[in-house]
Predict the structure of Di-heme enzyme.
Amino acid sequence: MKKGWLTPLLFSLAALTGCGDSDWQHEEFSTGNSAFDFRIPTNTPAPFVPEDNPMTPEKVELGRHLFFDTRLSGNQTQSCGSCHLQELGFADGIALPTGSTGERLDRNSQGLLNVAYNSTFTWGNHSLTSLADQHSVPLFAEFPVELGVNDSNKEEILLRLSQDTTYQQLFAAAYPDSNPENGSDINFQQISQSLASFIRSMVSFNTPYDRYEQGDSNALTDSQKRGMDLFFSERTECFHCHGGFNFSQSTRHSKTVFFEAPFFNNGLYNLDGNGSYPVGNQGLFELTGKAEDKGKFRPVSLRNIEVTAPYMHDGSIETLEEVIEHYAAGGRAPTTINGQATGDGRQNPNKSGFVGGFELTAQEKQDLINFLKSLTDDSFNKDERFANPHS
Ligand code: HEC
Ligand code: HEC
């Protein structure tokens, strides 16, 4: 099979027929046009930008300052950047992070490359389709607390920012109608819109794989080329869920007419033999309450996957080697994680038919891992445009 840029496009079309195990078909929507320069290759569609929050360099710059600023948390101990570290593709290297007041979260911190292309945000929430809405979770969530912004400290946080001359300039540039010196004139809507603009600006297609696709046949090693063939083969089935230009079937962009957001169960748990995952962390089921949604999560993008370990929604797989073994076995055999028996994930009734298991030689396994490593975007992980401006 030829894997040019066309192939991902064909997969996107195929996706319209709805091969997801849980399809959330959304209404047709209009695209916002934006003059912002995303610096993406000409043959790649621009991210979707909502009409109510057009991209401007000024909002992106304000968002970058806010993202890395601990003054944005109630007790001033954490910023977004505490759980999203640039050198780790904006993941954090640990299984489960802890919020600003010490509460542990149930989910693994996600890497933040090309987030703008995701159909839905976070690991398993079909209703989170707006980035600005997503940020209200780390900002305001109480169960568990992340940054811990609430009604009793909101005004104080706005005051902290508005008293800083740098923020006075940044807010005035991003929102020319506001009057930040006067304190009362900046608000959390501006903050979440600027954070969304910053996150949306974090797009990049500068990996060895991309260079290969653009014609540099030496950009991939022979092993990586073999691994690519395996990745896009019916033997491993990886591409059915992690296909397309962003290596995720859950993708939308400025030219998408209908977008779909599939969720899949890839056989990590089966606590009771009826498909259950650990309580409170059952993916889409937490929102829909439907038994068939137990264990269904977004097929996340595999870009930058080498640097965002540990893996899966709960960080329960440590290495890429173990990820491949997981899929080769057709799911997780009974074991214990944090003292809890997992059950036989291979037998989970909700498991996708694409996770059927396969056999690879040691060399083939290495080839597949090497291919996944060709999706690392070193330039992004060091790009000054996304770096902490306060350090
Ligand atoms: C305490 C750690 C922590 C903090 C602080 C934090 N995040 Fe996250 N972030 C996470 C976790 C965990 C997830 C996955 C959440 C889930 O699936 O429920 C996540 C998910 C995300 C996503 C979704 C990515 C995707 O691919 O869908 C975005 C965007 C994001 N965070 C941005 C932010 C921003 C902006 C802030 C600051 C306002 C922030 N985060 C603060 C831990 C954190
Ligand atoms: C049926 C769809 C499906 C198939 C097929 C599939 N995946 Fe996944 N993949 C998912 C889903 C869904 C998740 C998230 C699951 C979770 O966290 O509970 C995931 C997670 C991952 C992760 C962890 C991502 C992260 O950020 O932690 C890696 C790596 C991965 N898959 C690689 C592969 C490879 C390699 C193959 C082929 C051998 C493959 N996947 C086949 C759906 C699939």
